[in-house]
Amino acid sequence: ENGKLNLLGAFDRISIKEFPAAHLGAKVVVRLSCAATEAGKEHDIAFILLDEDGRELAATRGTLRFQPVRAALDAHLDLIVDFPVMPFPKAGRYRVDILVNNEQKMGVPITVEQSQETTDNAD
User: Fold this and answer.
1) Which residues in 1-123 belong to E strands, given as ranges?
2) Residue 34 pLDDT more than 90?
């Protein structure tokens, strides 16, 4: 709306047995919306994994261009963003910030927890 891109996204939690760890082949799925006035223009986009101290751990960056649909209609684009490696040095709260034209549009929280495996020690 008002020439701005709107983002929707969802990502949940990850259980990891040992730290430090790396989650291979992770995906972040979002639907991007663009006002009709922004369609056809090129936009820089970045998906940045940050730890709870705001340090960048991994990122995927690129450009995209929404194709105009009809003059008065907003354009939508569903993206599956690949993170070949998501490093997690310890359990805690992380987030993927989504930036369009270097402006943060949203932060998707990720909770990383130590998995609690139970074993049956019956003798």
Assistant:
1) 6-10, 13-16, 21-34, 42-50, 56-65, 75-88, 92-100, 103-114
2) no
Q: Which residues of 4-41 are buried (b: 16+ CB within 10 A; e: fewer)?
A: ebebebebeebebeeeebebeebebebebbbbbebbee
Q: Nearest CA to 43 among 81, 85, 98?
A: 98
Encoded amino acid at 110, one letter: I
| One-letter identity of residue 99 | L
- For strands 21-34 and 75-88, give the pairing: antiparallel
Whole-model pTM: value is: 0.78
Q: What are phi and psi of 38, to 5 degrees?
A: -95, -15
Give residue 66's identity as a one-letter amino acid code.
F
Contact 105, 7 (CB under 8 A): yes
